[in-house]
Amino acid sequence: MAPLKHLLGIEPLHPTQITEILDLSERYVTLNRAVHKHNDALAGLTQINMFFENSTRTQASFELAGKRLGADVMNMAMQASSVKKGETLIDTAVTLNAMHPDLLVVRHPHSGAVDLLAQKVNCAVLNAGDGRHEHPTQALLDALTIRRAKGRLHRLTIAICGDIAHSRVARSNIMLLGKMENRVRLVGPPTLMPSGIEHFGVEVVENMEEGLKDADVVMMLRLQKERMDGGFIPSEREYYHRFGLDSAKLKHAKPDAIVMHPGPMNRGVEIDGEIADDLNRSVIQEQVEMGVAVRMAAMDLLMQTRRASMKPQGVMV
Ligand code: NCD
């Protein structure tokens, strides 16, 4: 199995690599629940977080993950950076690269931007979400949450519901869950389904009752208004009525089905607040917890590859 140099998406990963990341994440879940939450997996290494899109949980999660592994972590305030003066993404990355970081964690509004950046720098690059393309650590943390709740990560029926078209979370999850041999059902209005959906190896269903039938996992997605240029849904009220998860719709899923959401949530638009807060069904807070552990595991593995490719004095071979 090829060592992990960058983590740009789920698409190139082999199922055994996914399992390896999840198994290591379990060890980090334990560490994160201990009083002393540190190890030195990234000691001496520099991690730079470059978020070109707003983020609360993902950026906090990567910062905490890096600090717990002993890295020097720097958060670039991209809104206040030279990008505002017209510098291109690549110039910014190449400039930072000259300061010898070991890892760049990048979120960008354009699909493919993070892959491009990875070709221009000689450190490891981790995609923290690019446009509507991929968000690999979100799919991995979702997988870990599912595996812990269901005791396995195969042969499950998983309904991914809502705004699939604009969602990198959905895309990465479809790939990961497919690779692990689950049955994936996409539920939502045709206007929110991506084109070419028939090549994804999934079922597509237009109503929640049918889509949630016998589901083990119900994954709700945010309506990504910032990526829409009008006209995708009639009104939020109508959308909630047809596609918002409430207790009546959830009854169609298995009695022990779990409810997930990557956050940030629009309560009363895609999900009823009471369901989101129901600890018997909702694993939304656990997803956040798993996020830190999965990011620690992914960064640990990337940096193992990097250390192995460097001479002791720090020169790349
Ligand atoms: C997701 C994202 O940014 O793609 N959020 C996240 O990373 N927790 C989903 C979203 O913004 O709706």
Tell me what you see in this structure.
It is a single chain. This protein is of the alpha/beta class. The protein is 38% helix and 14% strand. Helix 1 crosses helix 5 (136-150), helix 1 crosses helix 11 (284-308) and helix 5 (136-150) packs across helix 6 (168-179). The longest helix has 25 residues, at 284-308. The mean pLDDT is 94. The site of N-carbamoyl-L-aspartate has 11 residues, from helix 2 and helix 6.
Short description:
This protein has helices spanning 15-33, 57-68, 89-97, 113-120, 136-150, 168-179, 208-211, 236-243, 247-250, 273-277, 284-308, and strands at residues 46-51, 72-76, 103-108, 124-130, 157-161, 183-187, 203-205, 217-220, 258-260. It is α/β, with parallel strands linked by helices. The strands form 2 sheets. A 5-stranded parallel beta sheet has the order 7-6-5-8-9. Strands 2-1-3-4 form a 4-stranded parallel beta sheet, sandwiched between helices.
Classify the secondary structure makeup into a structural class.
alpha/beta
For the record, give the distance between the C-alpha atoms at the N and C termini, rounded to a whole number.
Answer: 20 Å
Low-pLDDT runs of 5+ residues are none
Question: Largest sheet, if any?
Answer: 5 strands, parallel
Oligomer: single chain
Q: Order of strands across the biggest sheet?
A: 7-6-5-8-9
Number of strands: 9
The molecules bound to the chains, other than polymers, are:
N-carbamoyl-L-aspartate
The H-and-E topology, N to C, reads as: HEHEHEHEHEHEEHEHHEHH
As a percent range, the share of strand residues is 5-15%
How many helices? 11
The 3D shape can be described as: globular
Radius of gyration: 20 Å
Overall mean pLDDT score? 94
**Helical proportion, percent range:** 25-40%
